[in-house]
TrEMBL record:
Name of this protein: Amino acid/amide ABC transporter substrate-binding protein (HAAT family)
Alphabetical keyword list: Signal
Signal sequence region: none
Protein family: Belongs to the leucine-binding protein family.
CDD domains (alphabetical): PBP1_ABC_LIVBP-like
Coiled-coil residue windows: none
Species of provenance: Nocardia alba
Pfam (any one): Peripla_BP_6
InterPro entries: Leu-bd (IPR028081), Peripla_BP_I (IPR028082)
PANTHER family in the record: AMINO ACID BINDING PROTEIN, LEU/ILE/VAL-BINDING ABC TRANSPORTER SUBUNIT
Residues in Leucine-binding protein domain copies: 79-407
Top-level lineage group: Bacteria
Length: 407
């Protein structure tokens, strides 16, 4: 995607790592007074189906075959530090927090099993903003202890810092940045751990026009790199179903959507596709419902977080949310909650899988940035979410998209 509420605690030594319907992404229900959303809700984001880019259902990955960060327990290494960069404070903090909690679960399992190879994480808060990331990333690459990065989290901050990371030889594994152009910059160290919006947009468009039979869809996009790229991919794939006459734009940070609501109310679409983040999606859907707009509300990974449900309340009911991220299997969810005190969210599984890959490299004796870049580039293995094997540009070889629904 993506274009954050923890404080960083510095530790020594650094690696930076910028399916069935019963699976639940959030792992818990939201029970809160939603104010304008219409009273108490008992809703959660639940997985519905995994799709290919044509919008057709495909088989899910066997999580039981996933790589184990614990390895054989015999690893030996000098203390190393992993790093994570993304939004840990701000309006979309949950998206970064989900990732760092996944990172910490993989590290916890590894370190308990391997007393002679202890790896820690150092986290850097960018608030998801390119201008802040541009100040943070040089600090990361200048730290000789940091051998790889999980992050950055959002597409905009990744676009602003990818060249710096590439020139520094920093392994850069993103669990969430999905703008398609990120792998078209000639960066040598960038690896995307999930599908991009050129796969997500068409999968959702084809699902809505095919399986759901929607004939008229109004597309609303925010002004981020993520929102613009996702909206364009969706519009292209949806063809005439994406009605240009009712398409509209909003800005990141907006809270008053009355103009968009009025336009959409008059258009009477079958569905509204929102390309943006949950901080705006939540009040937007509340205002749509308060304004009498009953069209299906559809959004993507930027909105696919329990915070969307908590903030939107009952107005979020029946919303369809896509994501190239995977839902959490039962055992993963239980382990995650035991360590972090809350259920996994969007990108938690990806943060865990990417950290596991880096740990496997470290356990194999790959302890420099250059060695880890080479290790990841040649990696081919099963994770909790999917098969991980990258092409020359850092895109995954095999892509699927999940559809979720608020129920």
């Amino acid at each position: 995607m993506l274009s954050s509420t923890w404080r960083s605690r510095s530790t020594r030594g650094v690696l930076v790592i910028g399916a069935a319907a019963s699976l639940v992404l959030s792992g818990c229900s939201d029970k809160s007074s939603d104010g304008g959303g219409g009273g108490n809700t008992d809703l959660s984001i639940q997985s519905v189906v995994q799709l290919d880019t044509a919008g057709k259902a495909v088989a899910t990955t066997d999580a039981g075959a996933a790589a184990d960060p614990a390895g054989d327990g015999k690893a030996k290494c000098a203390p190393l530090t992993l790093g994570m960069a993304g939004p840990l404070t701000g309006g979309n903090a949950a998206l970064g927090i989900n990732i760092i909690m996944g990172v910490k679960l993989a590290l916890d399992q590894h370190n308990k099993a391997n007393p002679d190879c202890q790896v820690s994480v150092k986290q850097f808060d960018t608030e998801g903003k390119p201008q802040i990331a541009s100040q943070v990333i040089p600090t990361i690459v200048a730290d000789p202890n940091i051998v790889a990065l999980v992050g950055p989290t959002f597409s905009g901050e990744t676009k602003a810092t990818g060249q710096i990371l590439s020139e520094a030889g920093m392994p850069t594994l993103t669990a969430s940045a999905t703008n398609p152009t990120l792998t078209q910059n000639g960066w040598k160290t960038f690896f995307r751990g999930l599908g991009n919006d050129n796969s997500q947009g068409p999968a959702v468009a084809n699902y809505l026009t095919g399986e759901k039979g929607f004939k008229k869809i109004c597309v609303v996009q925010d002004n981020t790199d993520y929102g613009a790229g996702l909206a364009q991919a969706f519009i292209t794939a949806a063809g005439p179903a994406a009605d240009a006459s009712c398409g509209t734009s909003v800005k990141e940070g907006d809270k008053d959507f009355s103009a968009a609501v009025s336009k959409l109310s008059a258009a009477k679409p079958d569905a509204i596709f929102y390309a943006g983040y949950y901080a705006e999606a939540a009040p937007f859907v509340q205002q749509l419902r308060s304004g009498g707009v009953t069209a299906a509300f559809v959004s993507a990974d930027g909105s696919n977080d329990p915070e969307f449900v908590r903030q939107a309340g009952s107005s979020s009911k029946d919303a369809l949310l896509s994501c190239p991220c995977s839902p959490a299997p039962e055992k993963f969810a239980a382990d995650y909650k035991a360590l972090n005190g809350q259920a996994p969210g969007v990108y938690s599984v990806e943060g865990y899988d990417l950290t596991t890959i880096l740990l496997k490299g470290i356990d194999a004796g790959k302890v420099t940035r250059a060695e880890l870049v080479d290790y990841v580039r040649n990696y081919n293995g099963t994770g909790v979410a999917r098969q991980y094997k990258w092409g020359e540009t850092g895109e995954l070889a095999n892509i699927q998209i999940w559809m979720y629904q608020v129920k």
